[in-house]
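User: Second chain of the day. Same drill as before.
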Amino acid sequence: MRTVGIICEYNPFHSGHSRQIEEARRLSGAGTVICAMSGNFTQRGEPAVLEKSIRTRAALRGGADLVAEIPVIYALSSAQSFARAGIRILLAAGADAISCGSESCDLPGLERVADLLHDEPAEFRKVLADGLEHGMGYAAARQNAVESVLGPDAALLREPNDILAVEYLLALREYGAEIPLYLVKRTTAHDEASDSAKMIRRALYGGEFPDTIGSPKLIREALQNGYGKPDASFYTTLLYAKIAEMQDPGRDSSGTAARYDSGIPEAGEGLMNRLLKNAVVYRPFEELVRESVTRRYPASRVRRILMNLTLGITEAEREACGWNDGPAYLRILGTAGDQVLAAVGRRAELPLVVRSSDLEGLSDAAKNTFAAEARTTDLYMLSLPGSGHYSHGYEYVRRIEKSRDS
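Assistant: Same format as last time:
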């Protein structure tokens, strides 16, 4: 029986996600649905609105059979790296089909774009280099280069889910996995719809509880008990503490640090200088993001850079985690039953980590990856209203979710 994989964040899980799981199962004919989900921090560079165990439980109740974690060092990275890590995890778990949302549902067109980006012919590379040289952001320069070669197909890189679909196709090519991709229709207005994760997050922070939220009893109780809605000011405080560490005692006349030692992923020297200059005046996290956005550095990238800085994730740590080789283990967050877990364990192409003791005998890269997860989880827990529920080193005693009960 086929196993279909979904890369997700479920921030938070809602009724649209249930429909996507159902459609992925129907289109692929799969008997098992495996989700590769980001943990407590998301690809947008934000702390998740609900702790990952709660989101895992909601996914299981919404139709998923198993949830595996995308480690934080990959979750807080570019779309390309996020997609590559997610695909690696799903393939390692035995997925023989992938499903994702798509605005266009134009699989042939998406494949043509992926083929171009995979092969990178000379014409494409020249136009891309010219765009970057003239100050265009990478996404815009890449779209411009695709348009120069493929014409109308370049429009497929304008919508967020189509962009991710292309990245999934590229990752499948990189890993030599000849498995099908099934597209589930998404509308361009989805992110502004009342049942989108973005609007649900906004409503939850505003004290509302939308009817379209998935597993409403579970999520309402989680919020009431302090397992969600992390305090944004906590991350602002951490960020300014990290910025203070980076700055030399000697400053120039503007108050900006004269030198810094960054090593923060995705951050160039020009952007770091801009961030430090903007940080001379105290600004909340999101305000600092807005002030630091440039044509080359969109808000999502700036937010990821700032969150990596806040959490202490550096290029050196990425390398210690075996960044170039991809995730070093298959971390299970939850499963619908022991039979599903046993089946994944039999075919897994990466070491299975169900409990922290499973790390014994694994590579240094695996242990370093888990250590980064444990450190950032501790910080996330401290930002929750119910932080008293947790103890330092919670990742080392966390139990996986095993229920679909309502």
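The longest strand covers residues 32-38.

User: Great, on to the next one.
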